[in-house]
Amino acid sequence: MTGDPAPGSLPQQVRLAATLLLGLGGLLVLSGVLVFLARTNIADGVVATAQEQGSATTPDRSELAGSLAVVGGVFVAVGAGALIAGYYLRQRRSWARFAGLGLGVLLGVLSVQSLLAGGGGPITLLLPIAAIGVAVTVVSALLSPSTGQWLRGERA
After folding, report:
1. Which of 6, 42, 86, 135 could make an SS bond with 22 (beta carbons 3.0 to 4.6 A apart)?
2. How crowded is residue 138: how many other Cβ atoms within 10 Å of its Cβ?
3. pLDDT digits (tens, 9 = 90+) for 5-40
4. How many other CB atoms are there within 10 angstroms of residue 113's CB atom?
5. pTM of the model
6. If we measure between CA atoms, which residue out of 89, 47, 93 comes closest to residue 68?
């Protein structure tokens, strides 16, 4: 007897991808809400820092707060998408696999862009590297043959 799971049981790859999507979605929703709620304080801090440094162009506080509101909204939307995909992936919905793949690729591309932008210290560089790892793990788990077989209801 091999160590294969029962025909109807959740494969390890699906469990891993769903867990990562749910965790990532929760963190993104929380981050988006916090950015939205603290947008005016963040904007005030950026404007004050620019004025202290004697910057030639001081950013407009209201435009910056509006941009942060949009960023918060995007975080919440992407996070909600990840939560929905993670939940319905466990419910054996094939569309959730493709939604998870899209979100994984999006996370990977944005993380590489953030990594290439650089700036900050070593801790700032660890976050995009970790996000790339999560993205690669989600995409590879969702592209595994056992995930496709399980979603189609086939035996492994």
Report:
1. 86
2. 28
3. 555 688 999 999 999 999 999 999 999 999 999 999
4. 10
5. 0.85
6. 47
What would the 3-class secondary structure string for 40-107 be? Answer: HHHHHHHHHHHHHCCCCCCCCHHHHHHHHHHHHHHHHHHHHHHHHHHHHHHCCCHHHHHHHHHHHHHH
94: left (phi over 0), alpha (psi -120 to 50) or beta: alpha
Task: Return the percentage of the chain with pLDDT > 70, whole number.
Answer: 93
Residue carrying structure tokens 């077989």: 149
* Structure tokens that stand for 80 in this block: 């909600």
One-letter amino acid for residue 52 of the chain: E
Give the pLDDT confidence score for residue 77 in this predicted structure: 96
All structural domains of the chain with their residue ranges: 12-152
| The predicted structure's pLDDT at residue 3 | 46
